[in-house]
Amino acid sequence: MSTWYERGVFYHMYPLGMTGAPKHNDATEVTNRFEELSQWIPHIRSLGCNAVYIGPLFESTSHGYDTRDYKLVDRRLGDNGAFKDFVEQCHDSGIRVVVDGVFNHTGREFFAFKDIQEKKWDSPYRDWYKGVNFDWQSPCGDPFGYDAWQGHFELPCLNLFNPAVRAYLFDVIRFWVDEFDIDGIRLDCANVLDFNFMKEMRQETARMKEDFWLMGEVIHGDYSRWVNPEMLHSVTNYELHKSLYSGFNDHNFFEIAHNVRRLEAIGRQLYTFVDNHDEDRIASKLKLKEHLIPIYLCLFTLPGIPSIYYGGEWGVEGKRTNTSDEALRPAIAISQSDGLKCELTEFISAIGRIHDENEALHGGRYQELLLTNRQYAFARHGEDSVIITAVNNDDNEVEIDVPVPVPAREAVSLLEDGSGEAVLPVSDGKVHIKLRGNRGAVLKLKGEN
User: Fold this and answer.
1) Which InterPro entries match (predicted)?
2) Which of 75, 85, 228, 330 would disulfide-bridge 30, Cβ 3.0–4.6 Å?
């Protein structure tokens, strides 16, 4: 029996942005924006999503990754009770909830850092941070120096080698599970976290909740170093992300197929996406808007756990600048959704339903069937079924003969988009498929010859 995350389709919510919350947390009062976020739940389900990754969530100073208090929800979003209600509503709708775990660094207003500011070398927390040195001042005016994440001194790095820090953070996770009943954590900056810390976290969280999911933010490197039975269940598949948009932009399916083959050993567990809160919107990256539908078709049917970043289902555009990510994190009210709906929205709902209903897409073995620069077909092998996906990135309609990897009588089309026949015969071990320009097909094999 597969786990919930192996069957997962995620909806990625950046709550401070999507609700239009203030950029800086200066208020003393709490503003409940979870009432607004809860209104998204029916829409999220309509897309076929059964999980949300929402974050950052916890009390912070500005963008959410400069944590002030790990046990308080950011007052710009609501209080702990409001978030607890949100999780309950998600669970009632069949949606799991994964939150950001920002454990590499804190903000400068975190209690341990403030204690060092006040007491200097007499602080019992002086070893809670990396590189604390009382011989110099930080650029922020602190009476000591310290290691900061990528030189951003508003983000001092925690010393995860300190057992007291690890114990504190595991207690925080236990609080999140007990108080809010979360289902998993996305580890911010997992690429620089101590491996032993993550191994210990895997052991601790496995005892807290069955099927608790740990996913790490990793951009480069050998993903199997992080994704293994001792550490994380998944990491962000930036390699597939890059090959998807450049493969479509360059009309080069070889780049995508090469990447999938290379990652196949772990690829079925990786968290896949076409955009997120740190990357330019895919609608802005693609040279041709017509490629939005086939790129989402690849996202949902290639190996991996697919994720939609809020607004992506409407083809929302946005590019970061040298100084700001705000364009990637716009305020969108769910009341606007009817006006934003487009052909892509309906397509994602359809492919989301197909993903949900076909276990071969939840972790089935991948097999490449046909590959040219502009056409690509592959199979996913489930326990009792085989799904074939065929994609065309050319503007013109094409006809292709795709090898069928198992004995079959016919192939039934699961996408009702008028691109071809509903039932296609298998002849001489191949299925003849017509593909519209910049579209694709998803077929389910039926019956032996």
Assistant:
1) Alpha_amylase, GH, GH13_cat_dom, Glyco_hydro_b
2) 75
**d(C-alpha 42, C-alpha 147), whole Å:** 44
Q: Which residue type occupies 255? A: E
| Burial category of 136 from C-beta neighbours within 10 Å (exposed 0-12, middle 13-18, buried 19 and up) | exposed
Alpha carbons 133 and 121: distance in angstroms, whole number:
9
pLDDT of residue 419: 52
Q: What is the CATH number of the domain that holds 396?
A: 2.60.40.1180
Cβ-based neighbours of 228, under 8 Å, separated by 6 or more: none
Residue showing tokens 């009382």: 134
CB 276 within 8 A of CB 421: no
Strands, E assignment, 332-381: 365-371, 375-381
Cα distance between residue 443 and residue 446, in whole Å: 9
All residues at 6 or more sequence positions from 143 whose CB lies less than 8 Å from its CB, including other chains: 117, 120, 134, 137
In angstroms, rounded to a whole number, what is the distance separating the alpha carbons of residues 118 and 381? 61
What is the value of pTM for the model shown? 0.97
Residues 167 and 225 both lie in one domain: yes
Please check whether residues 372 and 342 belong to one and the same domain.
no
Confidence tier at 449 by pLDDT (50, 70, 90): very low
Q: Are residues 241 and 181 in the same domain?
A: yes
Q: How far apart are CA 366 and CA 380, in angstroms?
A: 5
Are residues 225 and 316 both part of a single domain?
yes
Count up the domains in the chain and report the number. 3
What does the pLDDT read at residue 13? 98
- Is the residue at 347 inside a domain? yes
Q: How many CA atoms lie within 13 A of 53 on its CB side?
A: 29
Structural domain boundaries, residue 33? 10-108+160-361
